[in-house]
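Report of the visiting student (M.T.), summer placement. My assignment was to run the structure pipeline on a short list of targets and document each run. The first record concerns RRM domain-containing protein.
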Amino acid sequence: MADAVKRAKKRPRDEAAAAAAAEVPEDERTAYVEGMPYESTEDELRAFFAGEGADGAAAEGAEDGGVESIRMPRYQDTGRCMGYAHVVFRTKDDLERGLGRDGAYLGSRFLAVSRAKARRPDAGAKLPSRARPSNCSTLFVRNLPYSADEDAIRLAFMRFGKVASIRLPRWGNTNNSKGIAYVQFLKGESASAAVAAATTEPMVMEGRALGLDYDTGAPKASFKGADGRAWAKTEGKDLRKKGVLAPASRAGAKKSGWESVDAAAAAGGAGRDGAADEARAPRRKRRSRKGGDE
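After the run finished, the structure tokens were exported:
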């Protein structure tokens, strides 16, 4: 019964805090914390802010220190904390109490707690300053949410044209995304359309503004798909059959600039310097001086 009474008394206060928080921008209720042990967790950080402030006063009426949410970046290869975090508080008063924890210890390290700088809405939205190369139909995408998979990325870019392939690099030991991807369209004009649209309004996924750039490099032979299989022997093989990628056996394909059917279409059926037709044509046997085939 006593617990029920406490919850009933707390509910109006929580509702009032939520209403007050809705009127205050998140950036004005956020603290930046650095110096954290690499083994730190979100729960430990919440407990840290629920402790006493530098003036010895505990966070009154906030069992969790008034913390609303925590953004704690982690290394994708190990999953360990990067040593800093952004902590969003429910109210400005909670933030002020949190700032009082500056210099307090978490484990064996003391933390620096300060007001966070306002986030730029276009942070990370870097765009290419060059024109699209004539043989390019692939975009290099950075600042992706780590939770975004191939399907989510395809859905975001398919409005610009037919997406031929998506390569999403992952860490080998955790299979977690590295936050970057290669999006290849069937036509180069689609890549240009994506860049043009992002120039007017940044592409955003889960609150993160994406950076785009043209990519003319060939896929690495060691690249693996989400299933762990060699991309060149699965999806890459299918793309070569469709003529989207140059045959893997032609070592000079990359050097000649033959990489997509868009390059062939731009040159009237041939890639740069006729490389597409040459790549498709069977190799002629050379005659030796003695009349035999080499």
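The longest strand covers residues 84-89. Residues 53-61, 254-294 have pLDDT under 50 and may be disordered. I thank the supervising group for their guidance throughout the placement.
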